[in-house]
Amino acid sequence: MAGNHKEEFGLLWDYTHELRLKMLGSTIRMAFQRVTVDFLPHFKRYYVCFDALKRGWKARCKQLIGLDSFFLKCPFKSEFLTAVGRDTNNQMLPIAWGIEIAIFDILPRVEHRNCARQVFANWSMRKLGKSYECDFWQIVKCTAEREWGDLYSALEKKYKDV
């Protein structure tokens, strides 16, 4: 966010109203909290899921939803959460996104795992080469646990000194 934060947050009601008028069928939720009736509302979270993205995901995507989040480095110290699916070309398709205080408050019993790209980025600092990268992505794309185990064991043997 750039500019005056108070003014920008004040416009959220206008943005929400405009989205609801123009994007029929979309889900737009804004949560806020009032301490008392006399106080201005305190912003909590904002959620958007466009109708076209919902319909596209239901019609053409693999039945898999990935959640990713990152912390905002602004004066408000919050978390930005996105939900993505995979389309028929195996490309990422955004489904919904929003600002949330913490994902663990919403999905406390869901397994949380690191994204393969983040894991590879952390490992790639070791400069293991193109062969290692190909082996890594082959393991990531496995759909059977046994195949994954076999490929992972082979990778461990191949790079046991690393």
Automatic annotation (TrEMBL):
Top-level division of the source organism's lineage: Eukaryota
Protein's recorded name: Uncharacterized protein
Taxonomic lineage: Eukaryota, Viridiplantae, Streptophyta, Embryophyta, Tracheophyta
